[in-house]
Every structure is written in C-alpha cells, then in structure tokens.
Amino acid sequence: MQEVIRFQPLYQDRVWGGRVLETALGRTLPREGPIGESWEVVDRPEAQSVISDGPWKGLSIREALAGHAAEIMGPDWPADRPFPILIKWLDCRERLSLQVHPPAEIAPAMGGEPKTENWYIAESTPDANLIVGLKAGATRADFAAALVDHTLESCVHRFPVSPGDSILVQSGTIHAIDGGNLILEIQQNSDTTYRVYDWGRVGLDGTPRQLHIAESIASIDWEVVEPEPVRAAAEDAVIASSQEFTIRRVPMAAGATLSFAAGEQARLVSVVTGEVSTGGKSAPLTKGENALLPYAGAFTLTAVTDAMVLVTENFA
Asked: Is 188 a residue whose pLDDT tops 60?
C-alpha cells in the first residue's frame, strides 16, 4: 500500500514570532527565541523538506521527485520540476510588515517570483485582525502620501478574524497579519516579499529591516478593495480557488471517512484540528501535521476524533 509522505519541519526565526507552536501544536522547538514560521513542505534551493518516515525516509523532497516523479506527481511531471506548493505555519505574536508579492506578469522583470497564498486562521486572540487589500476610496496617490506621513493604516482594509476563517491573498494584494494569529499558510512555491512599511520596527539584529518601496508600489493591484474572508463554518466547502491551487475545507466527525482514488492527482492534506488515520502503516496525522498523498496511491482517511482537514489539490 502506498503511504502518505510526511516531512520534518524547518523552523525560522522571525522578529514578530513567538513560542505558540509549542503550546498549540505540541511541537518541540529547536532553540530559544521567537520562532515565527515552520516550513512544513518546501522544495527550494535554500530550503528542502526531508521525508520523516516510510520507504523514502531521509530523502529530500527534491531527491524524492528526481527519482520517483511519476509515482508521486503523475506520469507527466518532469523530474526536475520543483514541487509547486509551500506550506507554512505562522506564529504571529506581533504584526507583520505591510507587504506585497509581485504579480506574475511583472515578477520576472523585477527578479522575483509571484506568490498567491491562502491563510487559514487556526487560532486567534479576541482582538486579532488581518490587513488585506485597500480601503474603499483609497487611491495610489493617497497611498503614496500616507507612506510619507506614516499614516498607511488609513488606506488599507483591516478586519477582525476568528478561528476557522480563511482568505485567499492573490499576488499583487497589499497585506499584513496582525499579532495574535496562528495561521496555516498554503502558497505558491515562492519566497519573494516586498516590504512597503514595517511600523517603525527593528529586526532581530537591532537595525531597521529593509524596505522595498519602489518594488511594492509597482506590484500593488490597486483594484483589490476590501476583500471578504471565508468565515468559519461546519460544512464541506471550497475555501480557495486560484490558478495555482484549490483548497477544500472538510469537517470530519469521529469515524467519518474521506477517500481518494489512485491515479487522479497528488494532494496535500493538512489537519488543523483533531486526529486522522491514513489507512496505512503510518501513525495517524495529528493537529498541525501536513502530508503529501502521492498520485499513485489510493487513500482513505478516517477521523479518529472530530477533525477539520484542508485538502489542497489542482496544483499548477
């Protein structure tokens, strides 16, 4: 029987991070200090997920695809093509910078990569917010003036969130995450971020972090105005649909099953609450775990407890 593929997390220090991955997900963090990100699935030159169990244990995701692309991704997948999705847990104890990722049509000319991403709010404090898009009526000229006056909050769309909420952030959308959020980010395989404003903060080294004002202004889609999140609900639904991926939210009562046939497509499964058996020799997937279901395998997931699962598919 084909097994799901699990990976070892890669933890990243961030000035806005904290230690909530320990308490919320039961992780043992590798060092002291603010851990802002856990890269769960990544195939980049600077960062490689390593398979944590099963027959390919110890291989990087790049090595596994180089040797088994047809089995993992399907017969038409080039062995040298990077895995197209990057999954992260974000522990946002403090507000992230106001930033944007370049749209696909201009990213290559700027030496960057486009990055469409989806945020699923796993936990949040009562006063937690997100910033996504512009306020109604805000213009490019207003934004430029507010940048000089340090009044950018007057131009951006800030709204409260609760656990289970979700929002798709397309490349070109101005955005930031407020403090108090634990977020599962599912995104294009990219690491290009242009910071336009950092709230006067300094980095972990005590100096102001680099800003990319010209690149940001060139990248912002001025037509993205007050987008609405998908609010939490106890129903099966597609919560994100883009050219890059589709994400389905699947609530599962204890004992419920979710099946996938062999030979359809590779999929990613993320357990955001509860515990789910994969039907193979591997231990159940617990809260916070993300696994790859290879193309060649047939899988039946069974909820050991009440659970919420995100299924990412239709990778571009």
From this structure: yes
For the chain, where are the alpha helices, taking DSSP H only? Answer: 20-25, 61-73, 140-149, 213-219
Q: What pLDDT does residue 207 have?
A: 87
Q: Distance (Å, rounded) from C-alpha 129 to C-alpha 229? A: 11
Q: Is residue 150 in some structural domain? A: yes
Q: Are residues 208 and 110 in the same domain?
A: yes
Q: Is 313 annotated as a binding residue?
A: no
Annotated catalytic residue 195: yes
**pLDDT the model gives residue 201:** 86
CATH (domain of 63):
2.60.120.10
Candidate list 14, 27, 95, 195, residue with the active-site label: 195
Pairing of strands 290-293, 267-273: antiparallel
Do 48 and 133 lie in one domain? The reply is yes
- 309/4 Cα distance (integer angstroms): 15
Task: Give the pLDDT confidence of 1-52 residue by residue, as tens digits.
Answer: 479 999 999 999 999 999 999 999 999 999 999 999 999 999 999 999 999 9
For the record, the structure tokens of 261 come out as 């046939």
Domain range for residue 254? Answer: 237-313
Q: What is the pLDDT of residues 237-293, one digit of tens each?
A: 999 999 999 999 999 999 999 999 999 999 999 999 999 999 877 789 999 999 999
DSSP state of 107: T
Tell me how crowded residue 224 is: count the other CB atoms within 10 A of its CB.
18
* Other C-beta atoms lying within 10 Å of the C-beta of residue 62: 17
Q: Is 212 annotated as a binding residue?
A: no
| Phi, then psi, of 147 in degrees rounded to 5 | -65, -40
Q: Is 157 annotated as a binding residue?
A: no
Dihedral angle sign, alpha carbons of residues 277, 282, 283, 285: negative
